[in-house]
Amino acid sequence: MKTIIEPFRIKAVEPIHMTTREERIEKLKAVNYNLFALKSRDVIIDLLTDSGTGAMSAEQWAAIMRGDESYAGSPSFSRFEAAVRNLMPFEHIIPTHQGRAAEAILFSLLGGVGKNIPSNTHFDTTRGNIEAGGALAHDLVIEEGKDPTNLHPFKGNMNLEKLEAYLTEHGDSVPCVMLTITNNAGGGQPVSLENIQAVAKIAKAFGRPFIIDGCRFAENAYFIKQREDGQGDRSIVDIVRDCFACADGMTMSAKKDGFANIGGWLALNDGDLAELARAKLIQTEGFPTYGGLAGRDLDAIAQGLTEIVDEDYLRYRIRTNEYIIEGLDALGIPVVKPAGGHAVFIDARAWLKDIPPLEYPGQAVAVALYEIGGIRSCEIGTVMFGRQPDGSEIPAAMDLVRLAIPRRTYTQSHADYIVEAFGELAANVDNLRGYRISKEPKLMRHFTCAFEPL
User: Fold this and answer.
1) Strands 116-119 and 92-96
2) How far apart are the C-alpha atoms of 269 and 90, rounded to whole Å?
């Protein structure tokens, strides 16, 4: 069937506040054109992020009622730990309030001045936590991953030759090898099981821990099942287990493929490192059996992990993105292909050829999309990644606009509205102008910086 049928029924609804274009123009001015600063009630369709914005199931809400709020030794932690370990066979599972907290703990122990940390592509908070301690984050994605039009099935793969050369060059300054699945900053593109295992083998040969950023592990596993030779008859659960069996640890935001509104974890096999991480956790997050979360949140994550590996859900999830891409493609709007797992990515640099990267074409598209349709998206390009640790600014590898689709939140009519808004934007694209940044912080500037139109 061509019609996308959501594999769930809607049991509760949340009203959307409808705004006019004139109102949205004023609101953009008031927040200095930074979409992060908009009030959510002023957004009609919110695609800023898929992190923590999804809808929980009836069973998750029931699990919340079972949550035990004991400070230490809560049965909620035991259920959470068992659910994680069912999919990711790590010795030590340390809950945190979200993924960036896991990153902060890990890199406070492994990072520091003089350290170098490779990945396929570090996302913004990962890079920020690495650079906050003085280490350097390096991206080694395959060349196909830098080309939005290339139809390579696994554009998130690590470049294995570059990784070996990197480890040879940087030697003992590399505390670990990272890999993000799926590759968010690179268009939500998946990493093959073959590549995951090859990266693990190289890291082991050089005596370096292999750490997976597993925020969208289930979506990545679905792509492996659909696209990788020899994987089509295997279950999602078995593929997920294989992805993590070769790793020494992982960071996780449960706000993505944990189907939760909050939470995450750091998982490790190294007992000494885990002991240090728990000590850090107590300083900043909470006791090791709750890690900054309520017991009810741990139970919601535990239930979510049983639901995210459902193949009917994953099929619907990926098909929704494909459907939007097909609509944008028909309008002649350049998009990253093939479809990623959690988002649709517009190639703003290819679309707005007259706006140079340092005038932020991605931000121009994102602002115009909100003005036209009340749709909030996120620039993934030179605004996010252009400022370098030494203070200089260079164009990012790509200037994208991410339409991150919250899980189980919007319907096909919302998808049609998104495409319709882009149709109006396409009719006026020649009128778009770039932006300059008038104020910015030293790290992760895209969250709070101020813009001025040129």
Assistant:
1) unpaired
2) 6
Chain segment 25-79, per-residue pLDDT in tens: 999 999 999 999 999 999 999 999 999 999 999 999 999 999 999 999 999 999 9
Alpha helices in 285-360, H assignment, sequence order: 295-307, 311-330, 348-351
Report which of 154, 179, 309, 316 is spatially closest to residue 234, judged by C-alpha positions. Answer: 309
Question: Do 278 and 335 have their domain in common?
Answer: no
pLDDT of residue 401: 95
Q: Please state, in angstroms and rounded to a whole number, the distance separating the CA atoms of residues 185 and 121.
A: 7
List 251's β-bridge partners, or say none: 213, 266
pLDDT reading at 341 higher than 90? no
Both 319 and 337 in one domain: the answer is yes
Report angle CA 232, 55, 301 to the nearest 5 degrees: 70
Residue (of 372, 327, 328) closest to 347 by Cα position: 328
* Residues counted in the chain: 454
| Residue range 276-298, pLDDT digits in tens | 999 999 998 999 999 999 999 99
Give yes or no for residue 1 having a pLDDT over 80.
no
337 lies in which domain range? 21-50+310-453
- Treating both helix axes as pointing N-terminal to C-terminal, what angle do 160-170 and 193-205 enclose, rounded to 10 degrees? 20
Q: Which residues contact 59 (CB under 8 A, 6 or more apart)?
A: 303, 307
Residues 346 and 424 in one domain: yes
